[in-house]
Design goal:
Blueprint: E1 2-9, E2 24-33, E3 38-39, E4 43-46, H1 56-62, H2 66-70, H3 75-93, E5 99-102, H4 106-118, E6 129-132, H5 133-140, H6 152-159, H7 172-186, E7 198-199, E8 233-237, H8 245-251, E9 257-266, E10 272-280, H9 283-290, E11 295-297, E12 300-306, H10 309-316, H11 321-326, E13 333-338, H12 346-353, E14 366-370, E15 376-384, H13 387-394, E16 399-401, E17 404-410, H14 413-425, E18 455-459, H15 467-474, E19 481-490, E20 496-504, H16 507-517, E21 520-522, E22 525-532, H17 534-541, E23 545-547, E24 550-552, H18 594-599, H19 639-648, E25 662-664, H20 673-679, H21 698-704, E26 710-712
Parallel strand pairs: 1-5, 5-6
Antiparallel strand pairs: 1-2, 2-3, 2-4, 6-7, 8-10, 8-12, 9-10, 11-12, 13-15, 13-17, 14-15, 16-17, 18-20, 18-22, 19-20, 21-22, 23-24, 25-26
Helix pairs in contact: 6-7
């Protein structure tokens, strides 16, 4: 038997059903006996939604009202009645089993499955297998329209059936017409048999991506002969940082994700960045996933975009023999541990977890992440056989092991592969000889410092906005921006503050932009645009504030802080992308005079390689760099090119050897050298005293030697 099912939501109708995340408000169904060609009673049931605000299209098409829906039963009660009434109808027809048949995929996959998941309603097994009448009709009548263009009305017209929808109530005509179409397919001329129903996966299958089983499973994949179809991959953005692969699978409930098809993206520090790549079993499922753009996970909306198979492989593809053996145990819950002491052993970790959360296979269920030279990173992955054990382990979040607190998070197989692979291929903390980089000198430019109002300030930017978004927002005025004239302002945590400054070619251009773009929309927010001077811009970039009350200087101890020259090292060294490196000159007093500015050498910019990014860590004490943090990178150069660049350099090197300068704040007043070295245990620091590395003035040395703040190399 078939149960012909039709439904509607409080929002979009037809091809966009379920795309606006609106709730179900109507279910209509009827049982059809395929052998005797008899039908049961036609049932129509209204559903009371949490939000009874109906869209204009819904009111016009369905004729339903909020008052009528307010008297209906909630979804869980309606589903119970649905099962009971079908059982009664089947008994009358002398049948016991049935399969649902709906007009397309949307009602089951995009409405019922995600809504019941959000409301924690348990769906019966019948909703995990159904026939798509459009596909079955096209199979029976190959000369009919394509499946994506089919509707109940077009199928009825193809068969010459009546198509006057006004004769019946909304939903009733649709079900009656679908039953008539099915009887036509069962007629002697066709004798169609319903054999292969659509299926919905009950749960997401974890484990390594199937692509990497077989010969390639035990090797790092340097060849891309094995590919992932780009028509099956999406990128989800805006995920909560603590979300797991199961949370993402629940967001896409109703759609079939490939085994191991959820890959959480990590930043350069190995932390989740709020994005994930998801691979579906086919392009049809991917297209349905794209319709969930800006649907909600909890209180956050998730952006869904197309992605490529190559991007998915970069995150989820490739593994090692050790990882393959660790992930070979399927249907395990994976927990990531972070912050382990470098001396921690397997026994220490098992003892920390205790008997209430036994690890699958004991020591075999532990995987320590190490650097290429064998040193531990402080990360480990642990396997648990069930959700209960994993929950017990997560309760130990931030408990102490040795002298360190340990963080525990849910993880995925793709994250295991990505973390281990990245660590294995990363440069060790104690480098041998750094790869040189070549400085590329663009046309000379300077950060504006005068009182000419040739700059504009953008305030209220979306936190996800990037350089491309700003250029699109500027429109035709983009051509009037000075080279390297876009400056993103970040807060003290290194995150976007919602502000940006743009240097225009003239004050007139800045005035026109402020007039044209003020309170113009960017994404879902309006942005304020104000004209300002280069001096005002520098005050803000250096940590000061600019508001209606005027300028407030940056909270810096050195009142004569001048903009840095950002000169290149004489012997260039690769600077890790995650390090925010500011020149020590920024700590030194300097007198700003027109003559000094004119004599300053041109700043050297490193144009980016395709995959390189530098995320600047702005603080109130350091000025903004002269280029956007999303466009700074490094180009690897041959030794000869570096030697030629060093020979023509006229400036004095700031550091005689490769290194990075970090500043520590908030130290106890009685902190000494021993405590600081202990704090940086596991990292290499310069063995010499900093007085021998940097030529410091007495005033600068007094700042560096203050007991509250230290500068370490």
């Amino acid at each position: 038997s078939l149960v012909v099912l039709f439904g509607a939501t409080a929002g979009a109708y037809g091809a966009k059903l379920g795309s606006d995340e609106r709730e179900l408000i109507l279910l209509v169904w009827q049982v059809v006996d395929l052998q005797s060609k008899k039908v049961g009673t036609l049932h129509k049931s209204l559903v009371k939604a949490d939000n009874l605000d109906l869209s204009d299209q819904c009111r016009e098409v369905s004729g339903l009202t909020a008052e009528g829906l307010g008297k209906a039963e909630p979804l869980d009660r309606v589903l119970q009645q649905f099962s009971q009434l079908i059982s009664s109808d089947l008994k009358v027809l002398g049948r016991s089993s049935y399969t649902l048949c709906s007009d397309g995929q949307l009602l089951i996959r995009q409405v019922l499955q995600p809504e019941t998941s959000k409301k924690n309603i348990l769906l019966s097994d019948c909703f995990y297998s159904f026939y798509d009448l459009r596909k079955e009709f096209h199979t029976c009548y190959p000369s009919s329209a394509a499946v994506k263009d089919q509707t109940i009305k077009t199928m009825a017209e193809y068969l010459g059936l009546g198509t006057d929808e006004t004769e019946e109530d909304f939903g009733v005509w649709q079900v009656k017409t679908m039953v008539a179409i099915i009887f036509s397919m069962l007629s002697e001329g066709c004798n169609y048999i319903f054999t292969e129903p659509e299926t919905v996966k009950y749960k997401y299958e974890t484990g390594p991506c199937l692509l990497w089983f077989g010969f390639f499973f035990f090797f790092l994949s340097s060849s891309k002969s094995e590919t992932v179809d780009s028509e099956t991959v999406i990128r989800a953005r805006g995920l909560p940082w603590q979300s797991s692969d199961q949370d993402i699978a629940r967001f896409f409930k109703g759609l079939n994700i490939a085994k191991g098809g959820v890959a959480l993206c990590l930043n350069a520090q190995g932390r989740r960045n709020g994005e994930a790549l998801v691979r579906f079993v086919d392009s049809e499922q991917r297209d349905l996933a794209l319709e969930r753009h800006k649907h909600h996970m909890g209180s956050r909306y998730i952006e869904v975009y197309k992605a490529t198979g190559e991007e998915f492989l970069k995150i989820a593809g490739g593994t090692s023999n050790e990882v393959a053996q660790f992930l070979s145990k399927e249907n395990q819950v994976i927990i990531r541990m972070r912050g382990l002491p470098f001396t921690a052993t397997q026994e220490d970790v098992l003892g920390f977890l205790g008997q209430e959360c036994p690890v699958t296979g004991g020591k075999e269920g532990l995987l320590f992440v190490k650097y290429p030279d064998g040193r531990p990173t402080g990360d480990a992955f642990v396997l648990f056989s069930c959700e209960e054990y994993a929950q017990n382990a997560l309760k130990k979040h931030k408990e102490i092991l040795g002298k360190r607190y340990i963080e525990l998070f849910r993880s995925t197989a793709a994250e295991v592969q990505q973390v281990v692979l990245n660590r294995y291929m990363s440069t060790p903390l104690i480098p041998t000889l750094p790869t040189p980089i070549i400085p590329v000198i663009p046309p000379p430019y300077t950060i504006a410092t005068g009182s000419i109002r040739d700059c504009v300030r953008l305030r209220g930017l979306p936190y996800t906005a990037g350089i491309d978004d700003i250029l699109e927002f500027m429109g035709d005025a983009t051509g009037d921006i000075k080279p390297h004239g876009v400056h993103m302002v970040l807060n003290q945590q290194g995150r976007p503050s919602g502000d940006a400054f743009i240097q225009m070619k003239s004050a007139d251009k800045a005035f026109l932009v402020a007039q044209k773009c003020h309170k113009k929309m960017m994404k879902d927010r309006y942005v304020e645009v104000f004209q300002c001077s280069g001096e005002e811009m520098n005050f803000v970039l250096m940590g000061g504030t600019l508001n209606r009350s005027g300028l407030s200087p940056p909270p810096c101890k050195l009142p004569c802080l001048s903009p840095p020259a950002y000169a290149a090292f004489q012997t260039a060294a690769v600077i890790p992308a995650e390090a925010a490196l500011y020149q020590p000159q920024a700590l030194l007093p300097a007198t700003r005079t027109p003559q000094a500015s004119a004599a300053a050498p041109p700043a050297v910019t490193y144009y980016p390689a395709q995959a390189a990014q530098l995320y600047m860590n702005y603080t109130a004490y350091y000025p903004s760099p002269p280029v956007s943090p999303t466009t700074v990178g490094y180009i690897t150069a041959p030794p000869g090119a570096v030697a030629a660049a060093a020979a023509t350099a006229t400036h004095t090197p700031l550091l005689p050897q490769p290194g990075a300068l970090v500043r520590m704040q908030g130290l106890p007043y009685n902190t000494g050298m021993k405590e600081i070295l202990s704090f940086f245990q596991g990292y290499q620091y310069a063995p010499d005293d900093y007085n021998g590395l940097i030529q410091l003035s007495d005033q600068a040395r007094s700042v560096l030697q203050a007991p509250k703040e230290w500068v370490c190399l």
